[in-house]
Specification:
- The chain is α/β, with parallel strands linked by helices and 284 residues long.
- It folds into three domains: 3-88 and 180-209, D-Maltodextrin-Binding Protein, domain 2 (3-Layer(aba) Sandwich); 91-178, D-Maltodextrin-Binding Protein, domain 2 (3-Layer(aba) Sandwich); 212-278, Alpha-Beta Plaits (2-Layer Sandwich), CATH 3.30.70.120.
- It is 27% helix and 32% strand.
- A hairpin with a 5-residue loop joins strand 13 (238-241) and strand 14.
- The longest helix has 21 residues, at 190-210.
- The two termini are 28 Å apart.
- The structure holds phosphoribosyl ATP (PRT) and zinc ion (ZN).
Amino acid sequence: MMLKIAVQKSGRLYDHSLQLLKECGIEVSNGTRQLKVVAFNFPVEVYFLRDDDIPQYVYDGVADVGFVGENVVYEKNKDISVVNKLGFGRCRLSIAVPKNMQYKSVADLQNLKIATSYTTLLQSFLDAKKINAEIHEISGSVEIAPGIGLADAICDLVSSGSTLLTNGLKEAEVVLDSEAVLIANKNLTAENKKILDKLIMRINAVKTAKNNKYILLNAPNAQLKNIASVLPGMKSPTIVPLAEEGWSSVHSVVNESDFWEIIEKLKSFGAQGILVVPIEKMIL
Ligand code: PRT
Ligand code: ZN
């Protein structure tokens, strides 16, 4: 029995998808760009597909699970489960207008013609905001539509914003914040469900590790209480006496998001020789 995983065959999600599988200990080689490849060391078969087709294939059961952007998942709107965020492929689906347009609020979109390939998501956004606008569906190079007089505004994916800038557009509304997610068919066999649970456990271990750092430092014993109070660790910090009298070595795990704040506090409590080390896997 094998779990069939669909990933993008080329494009922005390809490298990250294979990297994530690799970090989960699942090695596939796709040197010859085949449609499907069996992993060496985990019961999965990887299918390489266009990202737009992945929700449909997962819904049909051709693939059991897939890695795909939320933008595609919610646009296709199939009856599948979104299991886990994957932490890559971040972007937002936004409405953009010509930069010289006076734009104050969503009401300014009333009666405009908006070009997009995301008609479902755009329509539900406009409905929720009670805006009447004409949606003009185009499949590629959406950003040039206002410039050539095809539309008044666009709705497309944005990451750095430089495509909008070079086309004389500005972001007006965010329709959806998106990142790559793990999706799954709702009727997996019990056996495949077990493989999926293992995969999810590994993905979580990789994601958690990326969000955390291992930290080691030397602290004067008189300050250990203060230092321990800013270092929660997985349970509590590990404290080991140093050969030098009156000093200890403190080990802990800190979250990336409050990392610098913690470092500042540690320094103010007299911590020295602070080492910060990446964590490869972290199982809670
Ligand atoms: O061939 P296939 O259909 O599989 O690929 P594709 O061409 O449809 O998709 P691809 O590879 O371009 O993107 C795959 C997924 O990456 C998307 O569905 C998103 O989930 C995610 N993603 C993240 C992005 C971007 N960032 C992104 N910036 N997808 C597209 N863009 C494009 C955007 O459409 C616009 O043209 O990049 C341009 C904007 O980028 P900035 O940096 O100039 O703002
Ligand atoms: Zn696509």
